Request: fold
Amino acid sequence: MLALPGRPAAAADDALTLALPHPLRQGEAAFVEVTVGPITRSQQVEVTTADGRPIGTVSPFGIRAGEGAGTYTMPVPADAIQDGKVSLRLRITQGNAPPRTPTAEEVKGVKLSIAGSRP
Reply:
């Protein structure tokens, strides 16, 4: 299960549900920010909606061994947001190994934010 600092562990289905800070306004878009800790060179963090729609993939390159990979921002499709919330699934993939849920060290945080024009 994915347990992030300041958040309870994800439900048994490994989906992580995040709420928008406010409803989307005209000209605004939602983004998910994924903070990745140390992962190996061949590992990737795949981010999808709970129903499997791809949001993005973190595939860091040139990170020194043992160092965090940084924070990556990905747009969230407006139709993936239901009642001001989005449910996401994060997976670590590596070569032919089966995908797995990341540890709290591999994914340090996940945040839903809004960007865009404000009247």
Summary: The first strand starts at residue 16 and ends at 19. The mean pLDDT is 84.
